Structures are given as C-alpha cells and as structure tokens.
Amino acid sequence: MVSSDLQELLHYVEEWGFFFDRWGLPRTAGRVWGWLSVCEPPEQSAQDLVEVLQVSKASISTNIRLLEGLGLVERASKPGARQGYYRLRADAFESIMRQRIGGVTQARVLAQRGIDLLGSGDPGRAKRLEATRDFYAFLEREMEVLLEHWRERRGREELVD
Amino acid sequence: MVSSDLQELLHYVEEWGFFFDRWGLPRTAGRVWGWLSVCEPPEQSAQDLVEVLQVSKASISTNIRLLEGLGLVERASKPGARQGYYRLRADAFESIMRQRIGGVTQARVLAQRGIDLLGSGDPGRAKRLEATRDFYAFLEREMEVLLEHWRERRGREELVD
DNA sequence: TCGTATATTCAGTATATATTGAACTGTAAG
DNA sequence: CTTACAGTTCAATATATACTGAATATACGA
Predict the structure, then answer these.
(1) How many CB atoms neighbour CB B112 within 10 A?
(2) Do A37 and B129 make contact, defined as CB atoms within 8 angstroms?
(3) Of A22, A105, B45, B91, which residue is the least packed, with the fewest Cβ within 10 Å?
(4) Does position B155 have pLDDT exceeding 60, yes or no?
(5) Which of A135-139, A151-155, B32-36, B82-86 has the lowest mean pLDDT?
(6) Taken in order A54, A58, A60, A62, is the CA torsion positive or negative?
(7) What is the C-alpha to C-alpha distance for residues B80 and B76, in angstroms, rounded to an integer?
(8) Nearest nt (C1') to B81 (CA)?
(9) Between the CA of B26 and the C1' of D17, what is the distance in angstroms?
(10) Under a CB-based contact definition with an 8 Å cutoff, are residues A104 and B13 in contact?
C-alpha cells in the first residue's frame, strides 16, 4: 500500500459522506458506502463499522437498512458466524440507475398531473408543463436504454473476470 | 379552465415543493418552479410570488437566485416596468441535464481519487472503486450523448413552433 | 439630487432530520 | 432454561438549514 493509512482512508470516506449529503441522503450512509468501498476484507460487521466510523450502532443499523433498501448493500452471513456481515452489492449501480429513473418518472407524472389539472379550457397555458413532461419522458426512455446497455456491458465483463 | 381554482393550483405547486425537497433543494425553490410552471402570465414579479405563495420576500429573493444559478429561471425585465419579472427558462432542461452530469462527474472523480489513494501496492483492493469509476464514466459519456440528442430534438421542434 | 419602490443581506428563529443512549427483541451458545 | 450478544426501535438531543423581519443597498423616476 503506497500511502493509505487509516487516517487518510477515513478522510476519504468522509468525502463520500459529503457526496451523499448533497444527494439528500444521510452523511453516515455515505460513510458506510465509502468504507465498504475501500475496506479489507470487503465484508464488515456492524461492530466493525461502529468502531472504524465512530458512530453509534443505532445509526449504523438505520443507515445499513437504508442502504439495503436502496439496493446498494447486502447482508452476507458467514456460515458459523454469530453476527451478520455487510458488503457492497455487485449490482449496486443498476439499483442507482433504477433510483434515478424512478425520480425521473415521478417528475414526468407530476408534470402530467399538472396538465390534467389545467384542463383543456385554456389552450397554450399548459405548454410549459408539456415541455417538462416531454423532457422527462425523453429522459425516462433513454435512461432505460442506458440501463440495458450497462447490463449488457456488465454481462460481457463478467465472462472475462 | 376546467377545474383549476387557485386552491387546487397551490396544492399542486406544493407537490413540486416536495419534489425539490427530495432532490435536496429548498421546498420554496420548488414552489417557485411549480408556480412559474402554471401561472398566467408566465412572467411574475417577486411581489406576485410573495403574495401567492405566502412566503417572505427574503425567501423569494434567495430562492429565485438559487433557481437562476441552476439555470432554471431567468429575469425578464419588461421595458418601462419598475420591478423585474421572472419566468422559466426555455432551456431549463439543458441546465438540469448539466447539473446531473456534473454530479456524475463528481462521483467519477471521487472514485478515481480513492483508487489513487489505495495505490498500487495492494492489487485487487481497488476493484470496487474501479467498478464505481467505470460506472460513472459510462454514465457521464452517455449523458453527454443524451444531452446532445435532446438539443437536436429541441432544435427541430423550434422550427415547427 | 432627492425620494421612492424594489431587491438583497444578515442575524435570529423555527423547523426538520440525523444521531444518540437506552430499552427491548430475538437468537444462538452453554 | 439461562445467559450473552447482535440487532432494532424509540424518545430525547444535537445539528444543520430554510425562513423570517429588519436593516441595508440599489436603481429608477420626479
């Protein structure tokens, strides 16, 4: 290892915390993601996370569950081991894409609801919302295609690994 | 207008507030965006926004500036009029795409920094971060393509309008 | 140049939410 | 069955940030 003592790693992990923060997710969720990205071994117990990240086990529990719900992290119970272990999911990025597509869908639906609300009485007034809906509909379709391309690519790479 | 009294509109506007909220942006910024999406005329003064949205002019000022910064809203000073007017930008969606691409770039850079930090001493350990970087690099490239397609599409539509 | 309307800034407050310690639940070993 | 530990839940706290009212700055018209 060239220059990655624990101090540096934790500082780096903190940056993932900030990144999640700007995304509207708890900072600690980002710290967990960050740590699980660099730790050795890749599987860590809740206790490990409590100790290295210096946060309460309550917060670890909550944020692990959040990350599980987002499809970014999974439980990996080692046979014979008392506690559970956690690690990044191999298909985490598909989940991230799905999250994003979901957000886009919500925006499209919201725009459509506005169009319906304005009704047909005042033609032209809904033009702005139609533009919004069209944009998100476009984005939604294209991101689905992107996700499919990513899946294909991952499939090819797995054969190589 | 079929069924869009002010009450219903404001409730709808509020939903944009929630939407922005989940995006990590101030709720009031979402309310302004929402109102500017449905109001008549499309240009509104800060005073208009204060009255209809029932928030302080300080908050309107702050959030208008935020939306300007994001490239979603623009000033439209009417000739001869004292106050400025605000409206949605026609190219707001390009800005939204740029924002998103920017976020993706940050993630890619952050992953790369982690790879550099781990160094070459422990081959295989950086595999997770490499996967992260590769995903975001993929997404970054593809979203640039998407943005270009959107621009082309908008260009064609403008000729029709 | 002065006066007035409009817009911004800022310190203080309110609000929302992430985090914590402690209590509780479930589970597996002894 | 009992004990010990992992994990969750919950009420209380800490923290961050959005919002407000008041003061200040800016620009425009008389």
Answers:
(1) 16
(2) yes
(3) A22
(4) yes
(5) B82-86
(6) negative
(7) 12
(8) D28
(9) 9
(10) no
Q: What is the DSSP letter of B45?
A: E
Q: Are B13 and B35 in contact (CB under 8 A)?
A: yes
| Residues in chain B within 8 Å Cβ distance of A146 | 139, 142, 146
CB contact under 8 A, B122 and A8: no
Q: Which residue has the tokens 């790693």?
A: A9
| Contact yes or no for A1 and B119 at CB 8 A | yes
For residue B150, what are the CA distances in angstroms to A81, A145, B18?
53, 15, 27
Length of chain B: 161
Give the E-state strand segments of A12-104 in sequence order. 44-45, 73-75, 85-88
Contacts of B113 in chain A (CB under 8 A): 12, 15
Reported as a single tens digit per residue, the pLDDT across A87-133 is 999 999 999 999 999 999 999 999 999 999 998 778 889 999 999 99
What does DSSP say about strands B44-45 and A44-45: parallel, antiparallel, or unpaired? unpaired
Half-sphere exposure of B27 (CA within 13 A, CB side): 8
